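Blinded run. Sample ID left blank on purpose so nobody reads anything into the name before looking at the predicted structure. Input follows.
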Amino acid sequence: MNDEFKPRLRPVEVFPTEHEGRRMILVHDPAGLARGVLTVTEPALFILSKFDGQHTLQEIQDDFRQVFGQRVSMEQLEDLAAQLDEQLFLDSPRFDEYVARSEREFNEAPTRQTQPDSGFGVELHQLPIALREIVGEPKPAPDGGRLVALIAPHLDLRRGRECYAEAYRLLGAANHAERFVILGTNHFGRSASVVATRKPFETPLGTAPADGEFLERLNRRCGVDLCERQYDHKREHSVEIQVLFLQYLMYRRPFRIVPALCPDPCGPTGTAPIDGRGVDLRTFAEVLGDEIAADPVPTCIIAGADLSHVGRRFGDDCELTESFLKQVEQTDREALGHIEANEPEAFRRFLAETQNRTRVCSAGSIHALMTALNRAYGRDRLSTRVLRYHQAVDKAAHTCVTCAAVAFTLKE
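Blinded prediction complete.
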């Protein structure tokens, strides 16, 4: 390694653990591309924090001595950098080559397949039983209107169970749609814009075909190829878990899907992609609404959307006390109020103005769903109801993820 080498660690998640009574830190690649999970000490974490592409190894060595009063050898730093590169934790030519090869393999594959570690919360062979236990008996829409959209979680089945049940019992009773536009969250992909895929979704329950013709119309109207960076779908679960419920409920009826991942619209550029590449989220949603209105095929939009992410694992320096969780619920309820009023811009603006302090991860898919619905049917013709709100709290892991089930029906 030359003297000017400045290692850059890729985005990672860190959270505390204990090993043999000693405090340690787990370092995890949320994108699932790196090999394994790192277990490091706090001094080692300090070194990793300096792997930011701005510091040479000599500078890191000097900073370590100044903070900890002891020396780490250049050989140790070089070995650490080489190990991280080998395990694909570094942003480096090795990582770029790996991603390019993986993208090529994904693009050439006939389907988008379920990953072995998809995180559904149950073993793959137990999915039919788990889905049956969650959905239970169908439940008609509360106002008798025609169901045109749902917001459901993308949590694992155990933690999201209550809200999945409320959302998909309605769909089980109002099984009219032949096309499902599924808007997911692009948690870890590289695109800053909307990302669709033409690939059928192959799961343990079968293969759900994509509606290629509808997608091509969206492409033409948006003026971009929404599938250009479809590799972002490979490990993303927020669309896939909705597909599982559809496959369970629609096993006797053919249906098609339009899978699309949505970016976060709460940053400084709003709904426009922060890197200037791709379609504006609002433009995409308006085009989606226009195409749904013009197309006779019965269509339902589903947003696979979680809400707040709080706790030490997500960066909060406090415990998950009852009072803290009540504050989170209050913030969530205010956001849900904008959803229930079907006000997509007010919802987005509320999160943006508060700097999305509770880390709502699915603002993009929720905003796009409401914008498309209002464009397709007109806001006055829609009825919106929050069916359930839930906080999935794991105090041992210092995490709480919240979610909701929301139904949108068309007034007859």
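Unblinding after everyone has recorded impressions. The domain at 121-410 is CATH 3.40.830.10 (Protocatechuate 4,5-dioxygenase; Chain B).
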